[in-house]
Amino acid sequence: MDRAQKEKVVEELGQIFESSGVVVVAHYAGLTVAEMQDLRSQMREAGGSVRVAKNRLAKIALEGKPAASIADYLTGMTVLAYSEDPVAAAKVMDKYAKDNEKLVILGGAMGEDALDPAGVKAVAAMPSREELIASIAGCIGAPASNIAGAIGAPASNIASILETIEEKAA
User: Fold this and answer.
1) For the chain, how many structural domains are there in total?
2) Full domain range(s) for residue 71
């Protein structure tokens, strides 16, 4: 890799560290190519990406970025997982690490906040953006549904009372 290629990689990594909602760092020693491809496909489905880069270049790219706290985790065979959704990459990495003991989560960063392995698990347990939007929409729609039910209830009650009186009269 010549100097121009290294500068390009550092620039790409810098953009990743700046624009990602979450970055997770893990050791992947012992993972087969098929397992790594499986991890990449799961991450892609969730809206994230997986990147293997030289630690030295990643450390250079981290300088002055919000996620600079993860520089200490960049030793050995590391893989970076990232996503714009602050939860997606952590969810996929946590799930994959449970299924495959060769993937060991070292930590990560969410904006300027450093995450240890327990922090990554906590982020993974949070609801995703889509789940939050769905629950908010449900909360917004519930009062309208209740109002409609309350408005319709008296008419329904009157109709049933009239029906009962009519049956007694007949």
Assistant:
1) 2
2) 3-126
- 23-44 pLDDT, tens digit per residue, is 999 999 989 999 999 999 999 9
CATH number of 78's domain: 3.30.70.1730
pTM: predicted TM-score of the whole model, two decimal places = 0.72
pLDDT tens by residue, 53-91 = 899 999 999 888 888 888 889 999 999 999 988 888 999
Question: Strands 104-110 and 78-83: what pairing?
Answer: unpaired
Token pair in block for residue 142 = 């519930």
Q: Do 95 and 135 belong to one domain?
A: no
Q: What are the DSSP E strand ranges found in 29-135?
A: 48-51, 78-83, 104-110, 113-115
Are 11 and 58 contained in the same domain?
Answer: yes
Beta strands in the chain (DSSP E): 22-27, 48-51, 78-83, 104-110, 113-115
List CB contacts of 147: < 8 A, sequence separation 6 or more. none
Q: Check whether residue 111 and residue 135 sit in a common domain.
A: no
- Torsion over CA of 37, 39, 44 and 45, rounded to 10 degrees? 120
